[in-house]
Amino acid sequence: MTSIEDAIQLVKASVKPILIKTTKPVEKAGGYFLFEDQFSPINMPPFRQSAMDGYALNLHDSLTYNVIGEVKAGDIQQPILKKGEAVRIFTGAPIPDTANAVMMQEKVKTEGNKITIEHTITEEYNIRPLGEQVKTGDLALKKGSKLTPAAIGYLSSLGIKEVSVLKKPSIAIITTGNELIEGGQILPFGKIYESNSKMLLAALYSLKFYDVSIHKVEDDFEKTVTKLNTVINDHDLVIITGGISVGDYDFVGKALRKLQVEEIFYKVKQKPGKPLFFGKKAETSIFALPGNPAAALTCFYIYVFIALQNMMNREATELPRIKAKSLSNFSKKGDRPQFLKAVYTDGTVEILEGQSSAMQHTFAVSNALVFASDEVNKINKNDMVETILLPV
Q: In which pathway does it act (predicted)?
């Protein structure tokens, strides 16, 4: 049986980046990473710009100025100001070439077409210079930058319509089990509503992986082989739930062997999620997760998350781990390390009731996992415990 530490290292070593360039409209590139350096096609701002609502001035020795006009944001005219003249101006409006400072309106007294400013000011006061953020041809965002909402806004402000980004993996989720039916139907005796695919899809979407297809296969060996062969050939990452244990109707392991999938590890010394498979066929990574929902989601966060980050060429591939003060007592049964569903708040963590691998209600309110290693048999209140923060 593989240790947790070895399993993590094997995933890191086995999953390689997908270094393929694809082009996305900038408004649809959120969550992607730039494939190459992005240079600015323009100066930003593209003209000298007012940073305030107030008055643009052609400075002279007096504090009094004659107002000769007005410039709003979007105006294209360029009033010519002589020394001692001013124009009313608004935030974001272009500064006339003959103006050299802006006084905010709160520090101006008006009387007809004359204004008096409260104090002397220096040249370029409250003026955003041409190219203050970035100049034409300068590096706007470097290769590998994550395209956050702010980055999308920034690139859009430069007039950029498309960006070259790192391709994200194509992902297939396969659920197995004759007992599974879709929600919205009357629940017959012996059946359960299928939830793992929705859960994993939501987890992937929350991480901004959207190229995901969902497949269902019955507990039938030949059908399992056929379905797995198709999705493995067509996807970068395959996530299977259920059918990986050793029951008479658990066909996933047998099907993977028939398809000559390389087994990198099978079974991890942990709770929940012991019957976890990870393998490769060509460049496709394959995870077979336990069917129990809490076990499947735990394995997703501890192992599949790393694979996804590796595929995107990220340096930090694991979820953050911190020390937090336990608000709970907990006694561990057995000798396997355990991931415990928990709620983290401001340096403290509460270990929740209902740790069974089949129980989803506890996970539904969790935002962390407490890790109890082999050496930890008991957790007491106020103990400092290793806490994995979930992306929720």
A: Cofactor biosynthesis; molybdopterin biosynthesis
Distances (CA, A) of 109 to 70, 113, 114, 116, 117: 16, 11, 8, 5, 6
Neighbouring C-alpha atoms within 13 Å toward the C-beta of 37: 8
**Domain 49-128 class in CATH:** mainly beta
Intervals of CATH 3.90.105.10 along the chain: 21-43+132-166
**What fold characterizes domain 4-19+168-311?**
Molybdenum Cofactor Biosythetic Enzyme; Chain A (3.40.980)
The CATH 3.40.980.10 portion of the chain extends over: 4-19+168-311
Of 237, 235, 215, 219, which is closest to residue 227 (Cα–Cα)? Answer: 215
| C-alpha–C-alpha distance, residues 113 and 120, integer Å | 20
SS3 state at 349: strand
CATH architecture group of domain 321-389: Beta Barrel (2.40)
Q: What is the pTM of this model?
A: 0.86
Name the pairing type of β-strands 237-241 and 284-289.
parallel
Q: What is the pLDDT of residues 279-294, one digit of tens each?
A: 999 999 999 999 899 9
Q: How far is CA 218 from CA 191, 225, 388, in A?
A: 13, 11, 35
- In degrees, rounded to 5, the angle at the alpha carbon of residue 179 between the alpha carbons of residues 175 and 180 is 45
**Which one, of 30, 314, 312, 22, lies nearest residue 154 by Cα?**
30
Nearest-angstrom CA–CA distance, 278 and 261: 10
> Using 50, 70 and 90 to split pLDDT, how confident is the model at 194?
confident
